[in-house]
Amino acid sequence: MTHPLRSFLLHGSSIILLGLAGLAVAAPQHAVTLYDEPPKYPPNFKHFDYVNPDAPKGGIFRQSGFGSFDSLNPYISKGVSADDIGLIYDTLTVQSLDEPFSSYGLLAEKIEKAPDNAWVRFLLRKEARFHDGTPVTAEDVQFTFETLMTKGAPMFRGYYADVERVEVESPHSVRFIFKHAGNRELPLIVGQLPVLPRHWWTELDDSQIARQPLLGDERISAAIEADDDGRSIRVRLQEEPRLAGNQTLSLELLQLNLQAATRSDEQALAPLKQIETISEEDSRSLRIALRKPADDAMLDALRKLPLLPAKRDFSRGNLERPLGSGPYKVGRIQAGRSIRYDRVEDWWARDLPVSRGFYNFEQMQVDYYRDNTVALEALKAGQFDYWLETSAKNWATAYGIPAVANGQLIKEEIENRNPTGMQGFIFNTRRPQFQDRRVREALGLLFDFEWANKRLFNGAYFRTRSYFDNSELGSKGLPDEEELAILEPLRDKIPPEVFTEEFRIPVSDGSGIIREQQRRAYQLLQQAGWRIEGDRMLDANGQPVSFEFLLAQTEFERILLPFKRNLADLGMELVIRRVDVSQYLNRLRSRDFDMIVGGFGQSNSPGNEQREYWHSSSADNPGSRNFIGLKDPAIDTLVEGLINADSRQSLIAHTRALDRVLLWGYYVIPNWHIRTWRVAYWNRFEHPKVTPLYDIGLNTWWVRPGLEQPSEAQQQATEQAEQ
User: Fold this and answer.
1) Which one of 142, 305, 397, 476 is least enclosed by Cβ atoms within 10 Å?
2) In angstroms, rounded to a whole number, what is the distance separating the alpha carbons of residues 101 and 97?
3) Does the structure show a pLDDT above 60 at 179?
4) Do the Cβ atoms of 530 and 551 come closer than 8 Å?
5) pLDDT tens, 535-577?
6) Residue 172: C-alpha distances to residues 107, 140, 398 (Å)
7) What 3-state DSSP class applies to 652?
8) Percent of the chain with pLDDT over 70
9) Which is it for strands 60-66 and 363-369: parallel, antiparallel or unpaired?
């Protein structure tokens, strides 16, 4: 299961108070909290309140995935990664699901923060192991961070942008140094880091060693020169030398080969054991520091160093089973169709307080469907076990089957206490036709939510009226004094209505007749220079108005069709384009869309992720969630102010101020939300009576004893579906 990345950055406004807060957390702690308040769970706690510590282990849990997958690397932008692949990895800390933002050590036994929050140190558990038995070390943490920042999805570069560097202090101590002091939340953010096995990802391929060149070969043309005192050697490569198989010999790959040579038992390479450190001198050179002065034997050994290619490329996704350290490992794979995770019986963390009561299924399986309607029928046929229902119509009408009536298939609504965030029809403002705020407002007037809620959703939804709905963070009424202090310096750069009007979304009578909204929409379009000639709307450049709505799921088509008709009444053409998941993701990453339906998830402590949503720095990053294409200096200022808020009250004021400016910008057509999770599951399963405040808590569920496997009829249905 994944959860939204939660963030909140806090600058201390008083040196004295900041110092006192720092002293309170200077010693290594078992947990860290946002405001340095005592965590809910003390150092000697046995388990979280929302688990059953005695839950039986065993059985299989089957759920559905949408579309397909072609990668087991969830940390890059290329390919489509398998659902739940994060189960194979451990993180430095885990967040409790019944506190707004408190993190407890997992790989880290203790966490230590600087008095001024300029750094955080993680003291790793010595018993932590990857699945091959290799210890998890500080070098793995450093490798993971540097790899994600250089080769991972662009999101990581934005999310961890305030980290200056990572220092390995000892095999079990690693320190993150920040670019700025006073950042209270950053220690919690870096604690979310999954830790990858350095030795596995940097393994060299010796299968074709006879074909590979030596460092001194002419085709490599490396300059190998010792300093005058002989205590270091510089190795300089020509531009992009190639190995057999056409793999580039980068400085990183050369360094891996040199490090491997220091551990080699080959006599010819024995002098290389005198290498002390290796560092980059410039973009084409390595500096090798030695324990004793270089001699001819050392230089000769360098020239005879065989250069092996890397066995794996982190930047390319594939279906090789990755090595992890988490509660599960990858089991059976049917490419693009199904993936199974097998519980690690000797998982090193199984008895930790943060792990007790979790990960109770012997196997977790994800079967993929290209259509959610087909998937729902498969659930009812017993082909998988659990379904999170997102369709109000289905929830109201699609479960009238005997299995529900007799209690075999359970329908349950679990309260969701998270801010609902914003789901909406998103305008790509990189497109010229959507760059005028009046046009965006006009198009929003033509979506009739009340009719859709009545006719399509069985009245199940609330209209979303804030980017932070269902929380104290959302704006209401007019700006208060604290908000005005934030907004006034930006008065000439933001919509004037922010100061004078409460933002309200038009409400129809649900009849499907929206003449008043159409009239207002036409007025706005005329103000923007649009006009109707014949039966067609022409934009300010005199071009017929036509735009595309990109979809990956069929169920949204029925929602868009009435919107399409309302647009057509004003002479505009909406083309609904449905593509497969892979193509959809590629077009999102390349920003090749006019409109999409999308969401901006929020937590109780918004922070760094707001840069990924709204900041100019993320607009051109293909992996960011700045789908809108926002490049607005005023919004940048509001985002930075939110991130650097110095108290909870200040955070609320900054969030509400940002909310107002986003709403009055009409960057999305707000959709709807519900305040519960609607789940359907077969009665083989149970969950704790106490549910987490901020999550479904699926990883705390278990199989009822004696019902570890699906019924014979369910198994037969599954087998028939797989044939």
Assistant:
1) 397
2) 8
3) yes
4) no
5) 999 999 999 999 999 999 888 999 999 999 999 999 999 999 9
6) 10, 10, 54
7) helix
8) 95
9) parallel
Q: Alpha-carbon distance 65 to 69, whole Å? A: 9
Q: Which is nearest to 63 in space by CA: 334, 340, 324?
A: 340
- In 273-339, which ranges are continuous DSSP H helix? 296-303
Answer yes or no: are the C-beta atoms of 262 and 272 closer than 8 Å.
yes
The whole-angstrom separation of Cα 420 and Cα 467 is 8
- Cα–chain-centroid distance for residue 607? 14
Q: What's the token pair of residue 604?
A: 């109780």
Report the candidate in 217, 373, 186 with the shortest Cα–Cα distance to residue 307.
Answer: 217
- The phi, psi pair for 543, rounded to 5°, reads -95, 140
Cβ atoms of 372 and 66 closer than 8 Å: yes
Distance in angstroms (rounded) separating the CA atoms of residues 238 and 219: 9
- Answer for the pair 101, 12: CB distance below 8 angstroms, yes or no: no
Give 594's DSSP letter. Answer: S
Provide DSSP, 423-455: EEEEE-TTSGGG-SHHHHHHHHHT--HHHHHHH
pLDDT at 263: 92
Measuring CA to CA, which residue among 96, 52, 53, 97 is closest to residue 692? 97
Using the Cα atoms of residue 627, residue 633, residue 634 and residue 636 in order, give the sign of their dihedral: positive
Query: Which sign, positive or negative, has the C-alpha torsion 18, 24, 26, 30?
Result: negative
Nearest to 274 by CA among 309, 302, 253, 236: 302
Tell me the DSSP string of 490-505: GGGGS-THHHH-----
The average pLDDT across 127-144 equals 98
The dihedral built from the CA positions of residue 239, 241, 247 and 250, taken in this order, carries a sign that is: negative
> pTM of the predicted model, to two decimals?
0.82
Q: Please answer whether residues 61 and 703 qualify as being in contact, where contact means their C-beta atoms are separated by less than 8 angstroms.
A: yes
**Sign (positive/negative) of CA torsion 341, 344, 345, 347?**
negative
Amino acid at 237: L
Rounded CA gap, 266 and 254, in Å?
18
Tell me the CA distances in angstroms from 180 to 10, 11, 100, 400, one per residue in order: 11, 9, 24, 58
Distances in Å between the Cα of 236 and the Cα atoms of 222, 239, 283, 320 are 6, 10, 9, 34
**pLDDT digit string (tens) for 202-220?**
999 999 898 999 999 988 9
Average pLDDT, the chain: 91
Q: Would you state the pLDDT for residue 10?
A: 28
pLDDT at position 230: 92
CB 634 within 8 A of CB 464: no
* Cα 299 off chain centre by: 47
Q: What is the DSSP string of 213-270?
A: PBTTSTTT--EEEE-TTSSEEEEEPPSS-B-TTS-B--HHHHHHHHHHHHT---GGGG
CA distance 268 to 226: 19
Q: Dump pLDDT digits (tens) for 94-110.
A: 999 999 889 999 999 99
The predicted-structure confidence for 26-74, as pLDDT tens digits, reads as follows: 589 999 988 788 999 999 999 999 999 999 999 999 999 999 999 999 9
**Within a 10 A sphere around the Cβ of 345, how many other Cβ atoms?**
8
Residues 6+ apart with CB under 8 A from 310: 202, 203, 204, 205, 247, 253, 256
